[in-house]
Automatic annotation (TrEMBL):
Keywords: DNA-binding, Transcription, Transcription regulation. It comes from Zoogloea oryzae. This is LysR family transcriptional regulator. Belongs to the LysR transcriptional regulatory family. Pfam families: HTH_1, LysR_substrate. Residues 1-59 form the HTH lysR-type domain. The keyword Transcription applies. The keyword Transcription applies. The lineage of its organism: Bacteria, Pseudomonadati, Pseudomonadota, Betaproteobacteria, Rhodocyclales.
Length: 298
């Protein structure tokens, strides 16, 4: 039994909650994965996993062994990176998650530069507006917009994304423009539902150095960034959104920025990754590249 391979397999099973998915990630037959874990448990003399037809869970011994495996595997990766070409020439697959709009409008157009710099790194990109489980879904890095709540993860602040309050030109033609936040009582908005709470996100403005929130009447609520902008474009009311998402519409005149003297607070953008993966050379160069890319954003 290759104990190092067994540790890798065991940690992936715990993280993904599945023998078959872990075997697939490590290019192993499903039967081989089962046999390796049986041999590992026999070697240790303890049961590490509780298996049912629907799920796989760790035992108390499995929890302790998992924590030790993470530390050992991280140390091994660190040593190999320090004394091999991996530090100079990162390689392998990098699994990244980002919001739909940021990925489509900012990240994907910039990715050719990263791929040209690091041709041995392949990127597996998922785009979703929901809050994913990095460990459970086997993701190396997620780009999150907004304040972070999960202190068990490592995060690097990349930039602050300017926001704008805007509406479609057709909506402005029908209803006029608010001159100050207090005027918003006469207007409607598109409700954006938070992926983490499911609740409507209020508008926010910086007024005389204070942060004030406003909730507007709404006939439509969405939980996706692209749908949020599309609803505004269709005339359902005002939205408050990162500027990158509507920069083309503003330039074309199909959307109009309102309340410019009362700017919304910028939204932090962070690269977030599990603690046990912060030493990966490919992840390190990717996060450094992200910081460089964000610094060049207009």
């Amino acid at each position: 039994m290759d104990r190092f391979q067994a540790m890798q397999l065991f940690t992936r099973i715990v993280e993904l909650g599945s023998f078959s998915r872990a075997a697939e990630k490590l290019d192993l037959p499903r039967a081989s994965a089962t046999q390796i874990i049986k041999q590992l448990e026999a070697h240790l003399g303890v049961r590490l996993l509780q298996r049912t037809t629907r799920q796989v869970r760790t035992t108390l011994d499995g929890d302790a062994y998992y924590a030790r495996c993470l530390a050992i595997l991280a140390d091994v990766e660190d040593v190999e990176a320090a004394f091999s070409q991996a530090a100079l020439h990162p390689q392998g697959r990098l699994r990244v998650d980002a919001s739909t709009s940021f990925g489509r409008l900012v990240l994907i157009p910039a990715l050719p530069d990263f791929c040209a710099r690091y041709p041995e790194v392949s990127v597996e990109l998922s785009l979703t507006d929901r809050q994913i489980d990095l460990i459970g879904e086997g993701v190396d890095c997620v780009l999150r917009i907004g304040e972070l709540r999960d202190s068990s993860l490592v995060a690097r602040r990349l930039t602050a994304l300017p926001q704008v309050c805007c509406a479609s030109a057709a909506y402005i033609a029908r209803h006029g423009q608010p001159a100050r936040p207090a005027d918003l009582e006469r207007f409607e908005a598109v409700d954006y539902l938070s992926a983490s709470t499911g609740k409507s996100v209020p508008f926010e403005f910086l007024i005389d150095g204070r942060l004030e929130s406003r909730s507007l009447r709404s006939r439509l609520a969405v939980n996706n960034g692209d749908a949020y902008v599309a609803a505004c474009d269709a005339g359902f009311g005002l939205i408050q959104v990162p500027r990158y998402h509507v920069v083309r519409q503003l330039a074309a005149g199909t959307m109009v920025e309102v309340l410019q003297p009362y700017q919304p607070p910028p939204l932090p953008l962070s690269a977030v990754y599990p603690q046990n993966r912060h030493l990966s050379p490919r992840l390190r160069v990717f996060v450094d590249w992200l910081a460089e890319m964000c610094a060049a954003l207009p």
